[in-house]
């Protein structure tokens, strides 16, 4: 029976279902129980007839609703063997919601054939009462049957007509080989194991057993839309026609109707289009009754298949709702709004698919041919056996041609070319003509062309048509688009084909190229050969296009291979063909080819995405230009990602071809890419790939098999990743066989592959075969516990495994390859013999992390047995398992034998309190236990370990001190000092005895943490009695144990019973209770503090120290009784004691109780009361403590909340006291009692009453009481709300307080009020008043008070609002019997008033004006007055700073000349001198015969002004100081000024800084210096304070040095010479060295940063000045010879204090001394290339320099040996403060030696060790041991020496 008859037959669907289920009643009963679990399905009311029983059961199922019925129907189709003709209607009618019947009519009248497909009725069933509708329905069915038969006949005839006829150019057998198909979604058929439909290449032609699988989906609601994706040339169109042909031949019998449409034809339709028009007008019209046929197709849509070829060629821009769009019909068919239930299939290139496709669409990838398919195709293409063998031999010999044949279209072209090339050619010759895809097409054109003739014009015509079509988006051309000759040529050669384009109501013939790639090839020919196309236009077509797999756009574009063909035509092999085609010479063609190559070169320089890189590789490979290939390969980035786009074997072959020209390694990362299963084979032999990673669910066993074949050939591969795939045991077996052949692999990742036990174990078994492997990642695998234990056994036995981590999804092996590989061991018998010795020498440590693996007690026993035979363990983490008490105890007992170096984690294993105690007992004697932390509340059980004793012995041997000094090493290794933490374990008092018994066996327990338990006061009291039995702890934590003050009293008694107890800290509210020992002793004695260097812990011993103890009580209610009890307990505390108390409120009674107990605490050194409220009376109580307890040194009370009392020790009974009562609310009423209490203090050095409420009245009262208070230091009254009244009273009080030496008041924002005292009466007093806002009424009183303060010598008034008039009044009223007064006024108006006004004010002073200083920028006026007034003053000083002397006033001149007749100092700074000012100064200078000091600095003056000044200075013969620095003078002006030096034989200081001293000026200067026998200081540059002669940082050169050398003999009193950085060479240096011995008093010589060389050093060594103290020769180009000679000359020098030879290449010439330098304080040898050997004599010399304070040896080559030498001498250098060893080669061992030596030199403040090769962790540990080791980049503040 044919399929149509089956579909139109009268068999009832229900009847078929009933008959099917009657064959398997047990299955139906089981399903009834599954779907109806709550319904009684007893046999009481069931029919004995099996058929009726089935009907009853189906009725019950149907009554449950639509969803239950649909699920049942899907179960039937999935689980039973349902015939296909029954499965299709079952799923199409009842498998969806629209087919659910309202009622299931199966009764007694309805037999099993009582129901039909909806819409069809039995022929004998009546329709209404008339027989005519029955007859009409029958006629419709007949019309439909005839149309369906016509469809098959028409299709059969169509494909019969396609049989090629002899004589046609392309008349070859229509060979069809099914390509590789791969499902991309879960809708793949169940019989396709890995998603690839491979077909049967051996099947006979005309059959394909697997094409049906495209429509064999069995998903619940599987999509009826299938999209076939394949690159151009994969055979998509061929497959579509193949399906149509098979259907015509009756093989696809499940479909009644099949329609095939090509979008390239649908694009031609522009009118309105409906679905009937699409089916009947564009495909095949029924002979009659189209409406009836269409209605039938709608009713039987599940039997209709519509194929749309070329979805990527859709060019319509209309939206999916446009009724005129063919794409609209396609969209509605896909979404089921048209012809619901039909099957739709579309073909497309991969890329951006239209959005109209439903999300559940099934996509199938077409991958083309693999090797067997290529062979099969070739065998079928060639008829005779010799041709087949010859063609296959050519393909197999040429790998590139073989890889191109993976593309079916290209395989056909290659076979066509070989068909014509093989006859008459030698082996390999034919394939050599087909190296690229382009040349295949060129050869095809030559093959099809007439013999001996190339139709250039016709070919170019075809190319022009092809290019226009690509640019306009046209594939089908009309007759008018192509010239007739070109059309005839293309049709004759089979290059073009015709088609009939039908539309609604019209029909048209169209023409198209046989394939789109052929159209692109001819377009490329036109671009390369047409003279109308220039190079720029050609280059614009060389582009790259990304083809990501996205669904955002519906258009791909036509251009796919055009750039590739252009690149191929740029090959030199195509040049003759193009020259012939273009009818141009080869040079013309070469120009165009070069343009293409250049365009590709530019593209290679860009940063390209993955798709563009692949396309570029195709193009570059086509060019056959090695230089371009090499450039492209080198331009690729080191990390090359390929994400989310389709890749074929051909793509990877092109990439591999380019990588072959690359030198550097590359990393390839493929993620989310649809990959052809045999893709990896293309990478075979690629030696440039270092990392290879694949991550895609589309990779299966076939992919793994192909990967396994290529892996052994990739010799440089180090990292392999295959993640997120669908690989199974079969694929793993292939990979496991390949991995041993890749010994160079360092990392393998198979994560997220859902591997099972066998797969995991098989992978792990290859670990010994991979000697360089560092990581194996098998995460997201499904392994059992037994397999996990097998993995641990592998980790234990495999010598390279360093860590196994299994946690949730993680399963990772980390490995450390040995130094020798297994291959090397096998090859050398000697190496094999010593393998065990090497294994012992290179002991490995293993880390096991098995977290949340459901391990039980039995599993732990197995694991322990494995680990006992294994290596040392670094870490074992078994947290999150099910060990419980027994398993944890087993692990704890086994821990000492398992050699765990760091940590054992047993957290979250269900441990109880009893189990915790057993664990503690099990590890109590473990000598390597460092810490045990058990917290039952947080489920924490962690054991940490220290290095093993034998490892400590090795470290101790390494730490032996070099040389004669060795450490006192104990006979047995020190056991580890463990830290036991039993927190939140619900421990109570009754558990303590058992706990302490277990702890008593612990070796050297140091830290015990029992916080978070329930001990209570009773438990703590019991624990205090048991603590002595636990040894010398370092800390005890009892926090959060519900304790009260009673527990504190119990613990306080431990100060006398526990010698180790130093600190006790108790906080009531936060329940923090900490007992600690001495940190210093802990660091030195605890084995865990610095295990690497324990050997020197007792280095030369430490002196006995008195340990200071600390008691801290916070947040408690301190009542008098409690305080009394506490103090009585503390009386028994030995040694110095610090007490810190904190509570909310402390009453006066409690404070009095506490203070009265203080005399009974002789060892108390500090009492601190913080965070508490004290009463206003507390300052008086605390002030009285000075008399109650004479040991009180300082009382500090702040804000009535914080009080601190410092006590003297018994050895420090002398010294002043200090009282600070700040912010205590003190007012006038408190002043008298406070002063009375303080008067009882013998020596009050400081009193601070700031921030109180004294006010003017209180301050007046205090000042009145001051004579009674024995203050010898300072009194601070700041921030007390005082006014000008208090300031005036202070001035009036000065005469009555003779011990006041200084007072300063600021009434502005600072609000400061300070009074400083001396122990004896002070003859000189200073008063500073700031921001006092004095008014006119205050000035007379201020003047009166100042006139009575006879001892006042200095008065400063800063911004006191004292105006010009008030200042004049003040100066007139100030009168003293005798003395000097300096008055400084700083007001804003001083800078604006002008010099003349200020001088007029000064002239009105009642005393003699001896000094005037005016500074406009500082707004300051300074006047020095001398009393009583004399007519002829002897000492007058005038300083005019920042003033303008441009105006001459004769009266003022006379007054000044009278007042300043004996002026000794005149200073002009930053002035603008005009002619009048110069004349005034000239007159004044002429009258100053005793002028000692003249300064003219930072000024701009003219030459005439200089002449006046020079004239005036010429009469000042007694000048002792002349400063002419920083003036803006030319060289002429400088000469004029230097003229003033004549006759200045008394000159002692001369400053000519920043003056242009030329050669002639310098000669004149040196001549003048020869007459200045008293000159002590000469300054010739800025910002330098140099004595004697300073010329540094100039450029005097050798000439200037020689001139100075000529002058030096005439300056016998020189003490300091600084000629640094002056460009002096060996000649000038040697001349200076000759003259320096004549400077008999020279003390400092600085010649650094000059290229002096060894000649200067040798000259200095011959005549070194006897009194030399400082010698600086930094960066002076000294060598070993000069340095050694200097060292010998300096040896024994009695006055030398500082030597700097830094930045010289001394090498082996570092100076060392035999006699020593007794006064040497500093030696600088930075960056002198000093190594360990050179440093030995130098270090020994340091001992001979007892005064050394600083040694600088940074930036040298010192190592640990030099550090050992330095550490040996450090204890002997008592005055050494600092040593700089930055940027050397000292390791942690050398630094530790320095720390041990440093401990013996108490005066040393810091040793700098920045930038030495020391690990940061060791830096922290070394600094914790010795804080004076400084490893920071910036120099830290020097540490306070120990012992001070």
Automatic annotation (TrEMBL):
The keyword Lyase is annotated on this UniProt entry: no
GO biological process, alphabetically ordered: defense response to virus; innate immune response; negative regulation of type I interferon-mediated signaling pathway; positive regulation of MHC class I biosynthetic process; positive regulation of MHC class II biosynthetic process; positive regulation of transcription by RNA polymerase II; positive regulation of type I interferon-mediated signaling pathway; positive regulation of type II interferon-mediated signaling pathway
Region (Disordered): 104-139
Cellular-component GO terms for this entry: centrosome; cytosol; nucleus
Major localization class: cytoplasm
Listed GO MF terms: ATP binding; RNA polymerase II cis-regulatory region sequence-specific DNA binding
SMART domains: LRR_CC, LRR_RI
Gene3D superfamilies in alphabetical order: 1.10.533.20, P-loop containing nucleotide triphosphate hydrolases, Ribonuclease Inhibitor
Subcellular location: Cytoplasm
Boundaries of every NACHT domain copy: 224-351
Keyword entries, A-Z: ATP-binding, Cytoplasm, Immunity, Innate immunity, Leucine-rich repeat, Nucleotide-binding, Repeat
Entry function: Probable regulator of the NF-kappa-B and type I interferon signaling pathways. May also regulate the type II interferon signaling pathway. Plays a role in homeostatic control of innate immunity and in antiviral defense mechanisms.
Subunit structure: Interacts with CHUK and IKBKB; prevents CHUK and IKBKB phosphorylation and inhibits their kinase activity. Interacts with RIGI and IFIH1; blocks the interaction of MAVS to RIGI.
Family as reported in the entry's similarity comment: Belongs to the NLRP family.
Name by which UniProt lists this protein: Protein NLRC5
